[in-house]
Amino acid sequence: MVTEQLLDQFRQSGETVRVIRDALEQNDVLGIVVAWDDTTVIIRRPNRRVVKLSRDYTYQAAEQERTV
Description:
Elements: H1 4-13, E1 17-20, E2 29-36, E3 40-44, E4 50-54, E5 58-61
Antiparallel strand pairs: 1-2, 1-5, 2-3, 3-4
């Protein structure tokens, strides 16, 4: 589960994050952290739509190399 501190760092910096949901790279979600609660995170994608995702997924900076 992603920590409060990491989510807050992503939100304040406004950097794009990569949400890794499974082993396939095409299923990754790229966007900006908008808000979160105890179980979910809201990500704003580049097309301005928002996605509500579980905090159990892997969150990392988009410019980093993808790790599974």
